[in-house]
Amino acid sequence: MSRTRIHNLSISLDGYVAGEVQSLETPMGHAGERLHEWMFATSFGARLVGAPTGSAGVDDAMARWHEPGIGAEIMGAGKFGPPGWQDDADWRGWWGSEPPFHTSVIVLTHRPRAPIEMAGGTTFHFLDASPAEALDVARRAAGGLDVRIGGGATVAREFIAAGLVDHIHLVQVPIVLGRGALLWDGLEGLEHSYDIDVVSTSSGVTHLTFTRRSSE
Ligand SMILES: NC(=O)c1ccc[n+]([C@@H]2O[C@H](COP(=O)([O-])OP(=O)(O)OC[C@H]3O[C@@H](n4cnc5c(N)ncnc54)[C@H](OP(=O)(O)O)[C@@H]3O)[C@@H](O)[C@H]2O)c1
């Protein structure tokens, strides 16, 4: 059975997954890279930023779950580009000519456009649909494999609120952002639907995994 998974979603102590204001120069707003420094320090994350090496400890092991068994990703318009990217016919995402997804990526947007095929097996498809409809499309594209919900905050929250997410891996980073894109709004009582495991590592972050209870 194809599952729906969130991985490496990095969150501040006060629940923000991005700061403000998001722009071409500041994709994560005033958070800068602070939410992802833990990951860029791992050998998994080093590859993403073109660094020669990274750590091989628990952070790296957790980060690597991002990829195995994933056949498609769903992301929001806010992750795909800075506000207003829909007005730029040439915008092809942040990730260069060979994005690190290597699968179909469904970009949820109220202003869809034609699909963009990239090098390395990534194709961006643009869709205006409910979370359940988008998941159907992604599952078909995933060919029986799992679907990753790539964020940002709004899309992760929509899918969690709709009861469509089986596994959530959050990485709590010990910073307080005070403003930005909040994950938890409207998700009161979420802990009743999931078994939650927690491990803190020497880098200072805390990994939380939420596994949906089988009766849910
Ligand atoms: N901390 C992390 O690990 C992490 C991970 C991923 C992303 N991020 C960051 O999170 C930020 C983006 O988060 P966000 O909450 O601002 O935006 P988001 O969740 O990426 O995208 C939200 C937008 O997607 C479109 N959308 C969402 N649901 C839709 C639906 N059902 N149908 C059609 N369109 C839909 C809407 O855009 P339109 O109305 O404009 O079309 C909506 O405003 C970025 O800064 C990104 O870098 C952080």
From TrEMBL:
Source organism per UniProt: Oceanitalea stevensii
SUPFAM superfamilies tied to this protein: Dihydrofolate reductase-like
Stretches assigned to the Bacterial bifunctional deaminase-reductase C-terminal domain: 6-187
Gene3D superfamilies in UniProt: Dihydrofolate Reductase, subunit A
Pfam annotation, one family: RibD_C
Entry protein name: Dihydrofolate reductase family protein
Domain of life of the native organism: Bacteria
